[in-house]
Amino acid sequence: MFRNQYDTDVTTWSPAGRLHQVEYAMEAVKQGSAAIGLRSKTHVVLATVNKASSELSAHQKKLFKIDNHIGIAMAGLTADGRVLSRYMRSECINHHFVFESPLPVGRLVVQVADKAQVCTQRSWKRPYGVGLLVAGLDETGPHLYQNCPSGNYSEYQAFAIGSRSQAAKTYLERKFETFMECTKEELIRHALFAVKESLQEEELSSGNCGVAVVGIDEPFVVLDPKTLQSYIESLETGKEEQQTMEETGTDDRQSLQVQHEGTGSRGISVGAGDDSPTDMET
Amino acid sequence: MSMMFAPRLTEAAAPTTHAAPTWSPYDNNGGTCVAIAGEDYCVIAADTRMSTGFSILTRNYSKIHQITDKSVLASSGFQADIRALQKNLDARHQIYQHQHSKQMSCPAMAQLLSNTLYYKRFFPYYAFNVLGGLDSEGKGCVYTYDAVGSYERSGYSSQGTGMQLIMPVLDNQLKSASPLVLPLRQSTTPLSEVEAVDLVKDTFASAAERDIYTGDGVEIVIVNRDGIRHELMDLKRD
Fold first, then answer.
1. What sign does the CA torsion over A194, A195, A201, A206 have?
2. How far apart are the CA of A166 and the nearest CA of chain B, in angstroms?
3. What is the pLDDT, as a whole number, of residue A192?
4. Considering only alpha carbons, which residue of chain B is nearest residue A65?
5. What residue ranges in chain A does DSSP mark as E strands?
6. CB A160 within 8 A of CB A172
7. In this predicted structure, what is the pLDDT of residue B5?
8. What pLDDT does residue A108 have?
9. So which domain of life are we looking at (chain B) (predicted)?
10. Which end of chain A is more exposed for a tag (fewer CB within 10 A), N or C?
11. Cis peptide bond prior to B183, omega within 30° of 0
């Protein structure tokens, strides 16, 4: 992006009818490490790529619980994201105090969007430099929304934001039609595959990614590293089994072998011949 | 009609006196709360009668509220204020959990409750609270409060309309002997969980005999390392 003479103020329009400052803010989102979201009929899964700024430091926290039924993943200026998450938590708590019921996800998303819009129309403010993927469950079912620095929001079946998100989006576009019927485990595996696409060369491990799930009767929780690692390993065994199935054409003995190899994955079924082949990879 | 708007001539001369208050923002819904702390458990109990004046509003109202996995609040007094206080504490606890990624310990909740009550020092919550639970070491703890937040940790306590009947009994059964009295008595043998629950049931049955505001039923909550357990016992309904 090149400098323009109409981009000094957020309150200055360009002759082409654009607010460059807002677009620069969205650029900040695109520069942040990737965040991915996808949903089924019963669950919503968020996944993030966790990039540490140096080898010595820990990575930034990008998955935040907002309430038992809502959580967010962010990409961009995580400091702005923290402020927004504090606002969202406060709104949820206040709503619950008055109405003794959970704040519907769509309402919260609109409130955040309106808050973001204010910053695009005040000369003494700057837009938030963070994009949010809001995952939540309410009476109308599971939802996934995206919040932009521009103040726009939209609902998605599956989406990815941040750097190298296009690779993840390509994977999601290929697979999204199967998501509605997925179980929680299948959905998490899809999310991890999408993260893998964004990581490209790097190897997926619990150190460089994060996953969170929310579902019907299941409060929002960020998976701990151990659980996450076992899911990651189940991706490997799933892939191996896929190859052996295709090669030998047998199922039972092979899958039994594979299950023993799987590292104590809490009984996560690694497709013991039941899952359809299209589940893992084409 | 015009008479109503004409100012009375005597008004300026007469000294102003406060009229007897016709409306009070408070009401007492009665009831009694008790809590006993043990080595590794805590028993919290309250009767289930809700009254106003000489009438019963309901025989089946819970005065007990679980705030965290390890803290249980029992309150008697004005139930509307008590409900508002419970919701306030819940909201504050939610915020704490978001910020610290863990639940509040019972001693921390005790301090928070005290601060919350004192915050309304000049329009108090009409709530007489007993907070029970397990502290960070897993030992039973009981905190007892007045309406404006003065609190103390102790081994046992009671609050409410039946407090005057129950407290002396608990003192007799649970208070350790004075070291000044001779012959020197060994420290009291620790009360087991079953014994504590039985004692609580006995105290409520006794209080229900003479306190008109206590009766109908008693709800008993036991907090120990395995979690939280509920028991219900019927009381006299007269």
1. negative
2. 32
3. 95
4. B98
5. 35-39, 43-49, 63-67, 70-76, 130-138, 141-147, 153-155, 158-161, 209-215, 218-222
6. yes
7. 61
8. 98
9. Eukaryota
10. C
11. yes
Query: Cβ neighbours of residue B71 under 8 Å, at least 6 residues apart?
Result: B104, B106, B109, B131, B132, B133
Beta strands B64-66; B55-58: pairing state: unpaired
Please report the ipTM that was assigned to this predicted complex: 0.84
Tell me the two tokens of residue B130: 């007993």
DSSP A278: G
CA distance A244 to chain B (A): 43
Tokens coding B216: 């109908």
Q: In whole angstroms, give the CA distance from residue B159 to residue B35.
A: 9
DSSP per residue, A86-110: HHHHHHHHHHHHHHSSPPPHHHHHH
Q: B198: which DSSP letter?
A: H
From CA A263, how far away is CA A61, in angstroms rounded? 27
Q: How far is B102 from chain A (nearest CA, A)?
A: 13
Q: Distance (Å, rounded) from C-alpha A166 to C-alpha A170?
A: 6
Residue type, B204: F
Q: Count the Cβ atoms, other than its own, within 10 Å of residue A166.
A: 13
Note the pLDDT tens digit of each residue in A60-112. Answer: 889 999 999 999 999 999 999 999 999 999 999 999 999 999 999 999 999 99
Q: For the sheet containing B64-66, what is the strand order?
A: B64-66, B71-77, B127-134, B140-145, B151-154
Over 80: is that where the pLDDT of A2 sits?
Answer: no
Out of A89, A96, A97, the one facing B98 most closely (by C-beta) is A89
Mean pLDDT by 10 residues, chain B (238 residues): 56 66 93 96 97 97 97 98 98 96 97 98 98 95 96 96 96 81 67 95 97 97 96 96
Best interface-test mutation with B: which of A82, A85, A89 has the largest number of B CBs within 10 A? A89
Query: In terms of Cα–Cα distance, which of B202, B217, B232, B72 is closest to B140?
Result: B72
B-interface mutation test, from A88, A93, A103, most B Cβ less than 10 A away: A93
Q: Kindly state the tokens that stand for B165.
A: 């009947």
SS3 B38: coil
